[in-house]
Amino acid sequence: MAQTMTTDSRSMELADIGADTMEAEFALEHTIAYRDITVLCGENLRENTISAFHKAMDLRGVFERALVINTSLRQHWALQEGRKVDKSAIGDDFNHSTITVVGMPLGDLCYRFAEIMDKIERYDIKLLIINSWEFAASDARYREKLIFQLRRLLSEREITVLVYAQNKASCEDVGINTRGKLGKLSAIAGMIVLAENSKQREERLQAEKIMQEREAAEELKRPQNPLLQKVEEILEERKPVVRAEAIIRPKVRAREELMVV
User: Fold this and answer.
1) What CA–CA distance (Å, rounded) separates 112 from 108?
2) Is residue 186 within 8 Å of 173, Cβ to Cβ?
3) Among 173, 134, 130, which residue's Cα sits nearest to residue 153?
């Protein structure tokens, strides 16, 4: 979800193709909606927190800087979990962390959203992660206000928003005002997906490692192109000739000049 590509080069590549095609390819590769809201439904707060940090790391090749809003009361624990994933990238200092974790008092995100928008603009944040939706607002009225704040953010900034929730919603709920704390968030979300838990992540990484090893083994077994081999042989044969001419020609030129004199 292209991991080694810089933010500028990735943005230029995405700009070269149509918006619909771009968004479809991005969603297929990264399982999130580009410049939209993606709701990631997980099992519990712990798994969602760990998943959020891994997701931010996986997307570093696309989004150079990310802001993770921790809405639970356990900011110290969240930072510990983040540093287990990557202590050099994840921290609570905007000047030293590419993935910055901001602790938010329980239910206060709606009140402090202007402060978050200021941080996004000042540090050019392109990826915003909210964990967890259940603790972001104190009641339904403020959750609804927060939804409109997120939509306004998307309309004013080129940003991708991921919202982690402990909910059993599915992709079929996109565009539907669901029951529970998701409510209208599912109606305006671009995608609703299942958050990857620790066991699934371990299995995926193991499968990717096995696939890479197989591809490397197949590459070693694959016979080389005879034409390429011939070209390499010719180039190798010409190397000493070129070196000899480089040495002999100046000497011949110098001797000719002496004869003229």
Assistant:
1) 6
2) yes
3) 130
